[in-house]
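Possible regression after last week's pipeline update?

I re-ran a chain I had predicted before the update to compare outputs. Posting the input and the new output here so someone can diff against the archived version. Not blocking, just want to make sure nothing changed silently.
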Amino acid sequence: MTDSVVYVVDDDQSVRASLESLLASEGHAVRTFDSAQAFLEAPRPTLPACLVLDVRLRGVSGLEFQRELARNGILTPIVFITGHGDVPMSVAAMKAGAIEFLMKPFRDQDLLDAVHNGIDMDRRRLAQDRQITELRDRYASMTPREREIMPLVASGLMNKQIAMDLRLSEVTVKVHRAQIMTKMQARTLPDLVRIVDRLATDPAKA
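New output (post-update):
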């Protein structure tokens, strides 16, 4: 069973069939759709993926659909294909986050390379998402006092300094520090510093 999937959205049945055959021949799991709406309505597994998208679709352009995906938080890397593209269109697509813009007729290998790169990008993104989710869960497991003390520990303050700042005993701070290191799974102070920095850039952290 493959651990990734390639989505193809094109309103031309012959193009969908051709792309599906090409991608499947390289071992990719492929799901095809004849419209942007069909893609949005279909269940999608949480797997590394790449979206091969025609610029010109019925009802909505590929560029408009790209913006709609972004608004809905769907961050699957996009490879645009078109027989009618121009330089401004390709620039707009790339600025909006597309990883490739291929003009028909394109070389099969160019598409395969672009899809491979897209899946690799999405695999890294999903791994980062899992990491930040785990960090959020660990952070949520701490007490309010531990959350208060954690950035002070990460800033390099000694137990005695933290105790004075928070009007706690040094022994109490030492216990909290140990709990923080355990709950956040930080083996060293530099580990904790990296965790605090990562959480500081996470808009979802309470």
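Follow-up from reviewer: compared with the archived run. The first strand starts at residue 5 and ends at 9. Marking as no regression found.
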